[in-house]
Design a protein that fits this description.
Blueprint: H1 12-22, E1 26-28, E2 35-37, H2 39-58, E3 62-63, E4 69-71, H3 72-75, H4 79-85, E5 91-94, E6 97-99, E7 106-108, E8 113-120, H5 125-135, E9 144-153, E10 167-177, H6 180-200, E11 207-210, E12 222-229, E13 235-245, H7 247-251, E14 255-257, E15 263-265, E16 267-274, H8 276-285, E17 302-306, H9 311-330, E18 335-337, H10 345-354, E19 359-363, H11 365-370, E20 372-377, E21 383-387, H12 391-416, E22 418-420, H13 424-433, E23 437-441, H14 446-456, E24 459-464, E25 469-473, E26 480-488
Parallel strand pairs: 3-9, 17-18, 17-19, 22-23
Antiparallel strand pairs: 1-2, 4-8, 5-8, 6-7, 9-10, 10-16, 11-12, 11-24, 12-13, 13-16, 14-15, 19-20, 20-21, 23-26, 24-26, 25-26
The protein binds one RNA strand of 78 nucleotides through α1, β13, β16, α10 and α11.
Length: about 500
RNA sequence: CGGGGUGUAGCGCAGCCCGGUUAGCGCAUCUGGUUUGGGACCAGAGGGCCGCAGGUUCGAAUCCUGCCACCCCGACCA
């Protein structure tokens, strides 16, 4: 089986690329590093969006929209921020084209040079804080809890569908608060929202923690992240939440009068997840037969495939199938009845497996006769024949079961591939031979972190919130350390 | 951005080294028929600016130059 997919064990990254293309999620476009997200892939993104949007609103946030373009001068107001993003910015310098004088197509009109160049947003802190300046005068104007769904551009050297593209879709929350504590609470709240989304909806266990100074967001005082382990033993940063302190308020001069009448700078956070989550879902669950979508994010949760020898049988099956379909819809289960006659059932079975549809029902003459239906689950590929009576309830439970099972599977995989390591040689050999998460001591210096990265390509993914205090010696320098941190090679 | 590879029908590829009839194969597509419980079969048909732009030549998919895109390995990064 799976003769259309590269084997995962043979070539992991080719397997990933094949899967994205063959499951019809996305493809490369004519523009370097930019992808076309195809309807099936976009449908998954829409499910992700819908659930996250619900969670954001539940925690008091509202949506708004800010411009795609950021004047260059805004960008340079926060020093660390510009430093971090300068190398990957797309810049608009002109606003008009004209016919080439040699009659060969069109050229940029040099007369139409912009007074001030516009940066295509790689992230929106600066353009947003420029607005916040006008919105905030008093503590009564706070907090501001805004999220925006947008596209951003980061001119990446090397791109991969969903994991790293020059343009990507994301959401970015930008909040403003009266106190340090409130902003810190918000930063924590949102990393928790991301973590529970990852675990409950994406069925992927994640580790929450602080980023080391090196890995922090440009302009942040603290960055929290969730890190997931992929099947090839590499880590994927799945979401970040930043405590920005008063950096952007100071850069954009956003002050407010507090309850005591004193002027102070506003405290800020920002937080985001992107279409990269698609990559996490793929690499977290999929197998050699294709995608395995968590039922909660599957655009099609159940597919019904008719098996028939003639038109008569088909119409009989179709009547039954449409009836079942209604029962599913009544329970809020999304279902597709695939009665296309250009492919045989076996072809459809393989195709829906490739696309990761959690549950497949096959309905044939045998079933019509016996009042049964064949139920196949994508996660285990197990098949059973059950009574057609009460099928919707049965499948609903099965979907919950699949959601739970793939989470458990990913959880066990992560546990089996998380190592507590105290010797440098072991550290290197685990990274070389199997990958995975490594919990090891670190002396807390950026130099050591840098050196370890240089030698092993592993970085500190995060300092887990729940990493207990424990006396130890740095894995590389042997200097004293108070807690273990999470190392891994990463995407 | 450095090193390596690739680009020929919707997809996967052969042809290129050594220039020369009408550019070929498999899958897919269309038509007709037989089929349909794990990627069906037979017969026929359609589909090509040989990545793009220049150059060499009587003649270029094939040789040369430039550009574009993709893949792999580095540096950078969500």
């Amino acid at each position: 089986m799976a003769k259309f997919l590269t084997n995962r064990e043979e070539n992991y990254s080719q397997w990933y690329n094949d899967l994205v293309i063959k499951a019809d999620l996305a493809e490369n476009s004519a523009v370097r590093g930019c992808m076309v997200i195809k309807p099936y892939g976009y449908a998954i993104w829409e499910k992700i969006q819908a659930e996250l949007d619900r969670l954001f609103k539940e925690t008091g946030h509202v949506n708004a929209y800010f411009p795609l373009f950021i004047p260059k001068s805004f960008f340079s107001k926060e020093a660390a921020h510009v430093e971090g993003f300068a190398k990957e910015c797309a810049v608009v310098t002109h606003y008009r084209l004209k016919n080439d004088e040699n009659g060969k197509g069109i050229v940029v009109d040099p007369a139409a040079k912009l007074e001030e160049e516009l940066i295509i947003r790689p992230t929106s802190e600066t353009i947003i804080w420029n607005s916040y300046k006008n919105w905030i005068q008093s503590y009564r104007d706070l907090p501001i809890l805004i999220n925006q769904w947008a596209n951003v551009v980061r001119w990446e050297m090397r791109t991969r569908l969903f994991l790293r593209t020059a343009e990507f879709l994301w959401q970015e929350g930008h909040t403003a608060h009266a106190t340090r504590q409130e902003a810190m609470e918000e930063t924590e709240r949102m990393i928790n929202v991301y973590a529970s989304f990852a675990e409950n909806s994406m069925a992927l266990p994640v580790i929450k923690g602080y980023k080391s100074e090196n890995e922090r967001f440009a302009g942040a005082l603290d960055t929290f992240a969730i890190e997931a382990l992929m099947q090839d033993g590499k880590a994927l940063q799945a979401g970040t939440s930043h405590f920005l302190g008063q950096n952007f308020a100071k850069a954009f001069d956003v002050q407010f009068t507090d309850k005591t009448g004193k002027l102070d700078y506003v405290w800020a956070t920002s937080w985001g997840v992107s279409t990269r989550l698609m990559g996490a879902i793929i690499m977290g669950h999929a197998d050699n037969n294709g995608l395995i979508l968590p039922p909660k994010l599957a655009p099609i949760q159940v597919v019904i495939i008719p098996i028939y020898r003639n038109e008569e049988q088909l119409s009989e099956i179709s009547v039954k199938a449409e009836k079942i379909k209604k029962e599913f819809l009544a329970l809020g289960i999304s279902v597709k009845y695939d009665d296309r006659d250009n492919n045989k059932p076996g072809w459809k079975f393989a195709d829906y497996e490739l696309k990761g549809v959690p549950v497949r029902l096959a309905l044939g003459p045998r079933d019509i006769e016996n009042g049964t239906v064949e139920v196949a689950r994508r996660d285990t590929l197990a098949k059973e024949t059950v009574s057609i009576e009460g099928i919707a309830g049965h499948v609903k439970k099965l979907l919950d079961d699949i959601q739970e099972n793939i989470y458990r599977r990913a959880f066990e995989f992560r546990n089996e591939n998380t190592f507590r390591i105290d010797k440098w040689d072991d550290f290197v050999s685990v990274l070389e031979n199997q990958g995975g998460f490594i919990m090891a001591h670190w002396d807390g210096t950026a130099e050591t972190e840098e050196k370890i990265k240089e030698l092993t390509k592993a970085t500190i993914r995060c300092i887990p919130f729940d990493s207990p205090e424990e006396e130890g010696k740095c894995i590389y320098t042997g200097k004293p350390s108070k807690r273990r941190v999470l190392f891994a090679r990463s995407y």
